[in-house]
Amino acid sequence: MNPYVRQVKTTDQHQLELLFENGERRIFEMSHYLNRGVFKRLQNPAIFHLARVVAGSVEWPGEIDLSYDTLYLESQPISTDL
């Protein structure tokens, strides 16, 4: 089972910066979703930036959501190397 999302932060480049319950920080690229179905509404930055964590997944107003499995499996680790 994949870890739940604990925190989400949106970026102006339509990415989600995620902190998972296992301590991993990862980036999820939303641009691949923005031309599909209900996700088209997230092209509006005012709506996109309303992302919040609910029950370990990320959701937006209007019943738009992404499961923690999708977010974990399709995201990339954030490098902590300087």
In summary, what is this structure?
The chain has 82 residues and is mainly β. It has helices spanning 45-48, 68-73; strands at residues 5-10, 15-20, 25-29, 52-54, 57-60, 64-66, 76-77. It is built from two helices and seven strands; from the N terminus they run E-E-E-H-E-E-E-H-E.
Counting helices, strands and paired strands, the structural category is mainly beta
With strands numbered from the N-terminus, the spatial order across the biggest sheet is 1-2-3-7
* Rg on CA atoms, Å: 12 Å
How many beta strands in the DSSP annotation? Answer: 7
Major beta sheet summary: 4 strands, antiparallel
- Assign the CATH superfamily: NE0471-like N-terminal domain
The percent range for helix content is: 10-25%
Provide the residue-averaged pLDDT. 95
Query: Judging by the overall fold, what is the CATH architecture?
Result: 2-Layer Sandwich
The N- and C-terminal alpha carbons lie at a distance of 31 Å
**CATH overall fold name:** NE0471 N-terminal domain-like
Beta strand % = 35-45%
Which oligomerization state do the chains in this entry correspond to? single chain
Q: Number of helical segments?
A: 2
The number of domains: 1
Overall morphology: globular
Comma- or semicolon-separated keywords:
single chain; 82 residues; mainly beta; NE0471 N-terminal domain-like; four-stranded antiparallel beta sheet; three-stranded antiparallel beta sheet; 12% helix; DUF2442; NE0471-like_N; DUF2442 domain-containing protein
